[in-house]
Design goal:
The chain is of the alpha/beta class. The chain is built from 11 helices and 14 strands. GO terms for molecular function: DNA-binding transcription factor activity; transcription cis-regulatory region binding.
């Protein structure tokens, strides 16, 4: 979103005219055009009139948000999610929106569509109009996030970025209690189904699982990466070793559900033949059959905490401190895990 928007015109090559097009045609700086619309009293009357005339000729329109831009007070925050269709984000959005509304802010939701290119373009348009950003599941590089944080206050979820405040989940504890649960059930071989390759949380989870497993006599294999979706889980099931492991731990619940559905379609019983564990405790884990054992994350609290962190300075976005925050998780045991099978393993 730019400061001002306009309709495409022949004079601008069929593209919507920008503040720079008006400045070029009027023979002034872009900052002068901005002041002419936002603070006309600070621009010479004749110059302001020329700018308005040129803008009208080009079909250039002022963005309604622009009136708040000179002071930086738009009372708007942005929440960036990697995939708006992922139910994982539902509770984060609910928590963030609730906290923003209580503080008198509007929350702008941006869907990055699992693409750093889309995310970059969306942020470039949104930055002039928002006072702070929550990046949930961002695919941007650490350096790109730090550059963004120099322009607006930023809080990152589920990723630790140096010099930028972050709110992560206790992945090591989640994988430890998962490994302990499977070890108590007699499992000795576990396959980890990986999520997106660029996901910081995925790297943390597989490392934490391997560290926990090493002390419990468990052997961990990894397959992936896969899209963090039910369809990705179905693909992951096809990638499992022919001699199936007794247990599968997935990066998230959607992958886990996809694995369960694919195994069931092949005649493999869950959990008698293969136990499956997810992560997040999204709503569908309670209605699928068997109910999914999962590491429950306080997602609504995470969304609320992110906005609270942004607005921790007298109701306005606070400068970032880089201090991380870790939220607790817990294992929810349902019906997708059972004692490890004995005898030959099904091939599926």
């Amino acid at each position: 979103m730019s400061e001002h928007d306009g309709a495409p015109t022949p004079a601008t090559g069929g593209k919507a005219p920008t503040i720079y097009d008006v400045a070029r045609a009027a023979g002034v700086a872009a900052s002068t055009v901005s002041r002419a619309f936002a603070r006309p009293g600070r621009v010479n009357a004749a110059t302001a009139e020329r700018i308005r005339r040129v803008a009208a000729e080009l079909g250039y329109r002022v963005n309604p948000l622009a009136s708040g831009l000179p002071t930086g007070r738009t009372s708007m925050l942005a929440l960036v999610v990697s995939d708006v269709t992922n139910p994982f984000y539902a509770e984060i959005i609910r928590g963030a929106e609730s906290a923003a509304a209580e503080a008198g802010f509007v929350l702008l939701l941006i869907d990055a569509q699992e693409s750093d290119r889309v995310e970059r373009a969306s942020l470039e348009r949104a930055l002039p109009a928002v006072e702070g950003l929550v990046l949930a599941g961002t695919r941007l590089s650490d350096s790109a996030i730090r550059m963004t944080a120099k322009q607006r206050p930023v809080v990152v979820l589920n990723r630790d970025v140096a010099d930028v405040p972050s709110i992560t989940l206790d992945n090591p504890h989640g994988m430890l209690v998962t490994a302990e649960h499977l070890a108590r059930l007699g499992h000795r071989t576990v396959t980890y189904v990986a999520g997106p390759e660029a996901s910081w949380a995925d790297g943390m989870r597989v490392r934490s699982l391997r560290e926990a497993a090493a002390g419990l006599g468990l052997r961990v294999q990894r397959v992936g990466p896969f899209a963090p979706t039910v369809a990705g889980g179905r693909e992951a099931a096809d990638a499992l070793p022919e001699d199936l492991p007794t247990a599968v731990v997935a990066y998230n619940d959607q992958l886990a559900i996809g694995v369960v559905l694919a195994l069931q379609a092949r005649g493999v019983h869950v959990p008698r033949d293969v136990s499956v564990v997810g992560f997040d405790d999204i709503f569908p884990t309670r209605i699928v059959r068997p109910g999914l054992t999962t590491v429950a994350a306080p997602l609504r609290a995470q969304g609320r905490a992110a906005v609270d962190a942004l607005l921790s300075s007298r109701g306005r976005p606070a400068p970032h401190t880089g201090k991380p925050m870790t939220l607790p998780v817990k294992l929810i045991v349902r019906d997708s895990t059972a004692r490890a099978r004995r005898g030959p393993r099904p091939s599926g």
